[in-house]
Amino acid sequence: MPARTVPQVRRWNCPPVTRENVDWAQLATIDLARARTPEGRAEQVEIARDAMHKQGFFYVVNHGFDLAENQRMIDIASVAFEEVDDEEKARYQARIKETGTYLGYKLPQYWVIANGVRDRITHYNFPRNVHDRNHPEALRPYLPEIQEMVEFTHCTILHEVQKLLSLGLELPENTLSDMHPFDDTNHSFWRFMLYDPRSEEEERKTEGVWMKGHADHMSFTALWSQPVTALQIKDHDGQWRYVKHVENAVIINCGDFTEYLTGGYYKSAVHRVIKPPADQEGYRRLNLIYFGYTSDNVVLRPLLESPVIQRTGLTKVIEGEHPTMEKWRKTRTAVYGVSELKKAADGSEYEIVNGVKVTHHH
User: Fold this and answer.
1) Which of 68, 96, 212, 312 is the most exposed place for a label (fewest CB within 10 A)?
2) What is the average per-residue pLDDT within 106-131?
3) Residue 191 forms part of a structural domain
4) What does the pLDDT look like over 68-91, one tens digit per residue?
């Protein structure tokens, strides 16, 4: 068969990796190629289980999406920010509070970071089926490729990870992946995300924090690794550490929905974005992210049939009524970053959403 002809796209020049001496988080790596044999699969199950229990973050490599395809999607992502004018961005702006979804543009200055400083983050969000809504004209030629990457991330990467994590709970391997079908009951979404540099005054007022520490409310997040060092996780010992760039790797993080689904056994990872090291100052940070949800009708009850959860007991429970995924995702999305926060004794801020204390870390 002849190769498919794809539209040309301007190259996005990724910055060089940092050479600064920073404190790196030691994250586990899941090798999906090794998971194809019975012996390798047992090994990867153990690695995935322990990493999600301890840190809530791990890398995935050898997933089948090559480096050239990754670079092209970065190039396509830049179109959303470089080739769509402000007027058209405004027309496609997301109605986040009204709809409880991010679909469309989240424009800068939406979230308050600290001391009156608002964010410098733009993102454009696609539904799981990108053809379910209209998009800016400049992005339309690339929709088939975006849809392919969405489906690949959901069905090839996340489903395989979910199978490993189900086995880690000593459950049938399809337990978690069956909760995440690639169909119209599922409202997972794809994001192109751009961080622009800030002024020295804004950096001083926010102590260099670009996005406050938080845990994702989704079930799983798949973040394609990129070279600007700014992502940090709050490690298992309570220290903030940088997440190192691994070329063509996907960083999987556990969200709050999965933490409550597993009674606290799998930990939702607290993470933040801060000013990059000195040798990367001034660079724009461009991300590819897939946010995974279960079907909307899944009720957030702990998987008590898991022998692992039976042995360890429940450490995270929801007080009161168990929400469905639909209620969970819409409520958490609508209020995040715009509701009034309460102060905790440790200096962090929090809000109560769906009976859950949602903490914002500095």
Assistant:
1) 68
2) 94
3) yes
4) 999 999 999 999 999 999 999 999
Residue with tokens 């220290």, as numbered in its chain: 239
CATH code, domain with 174: 2.60.120.330
Q: Tell me the two tokens of residue 244.
A: 């190192």
| 98 part of a folded domain | yes
Q: With respect to residue 42, please indicate whether it lies within any of the assigned structural domains.
A: yes
Cβ–Cβ < 8 Å for 278, 208: no
DSSP for 189-242, please give it.
EEEEEEEPP--HHHHHHHTTEEEEEE--SSSEEEEE--SS--EEEE-TTS-EEE
End-to-end CA distance of the chain: 53
Closest by CA position to 53, among listed 304, 254, 222, 232: 254
Which pLDDT belongs to residue 101? 85
- Tell me the C-alpha distance between 160 and 7, whole Å: 31
What is the Cα–Cα distance from 169 to 303, expressed in whole angstroms?
A: 9
Number of folded domains in the chain? Answer: 1
8 Å CB contact between 77 and 286: yes
- 297 token code pair: 């009708």
User: Does residue 295 lie within any of the structural domains?
Assistant: yes
Q: Which range of residues forms the domain containing residue 232?
A: 28-360
Count of CA atoms in the C-beta half-sphere (13 A) of 198: 25
- Please say if the pLDDT value at position 2 is more than 50: no
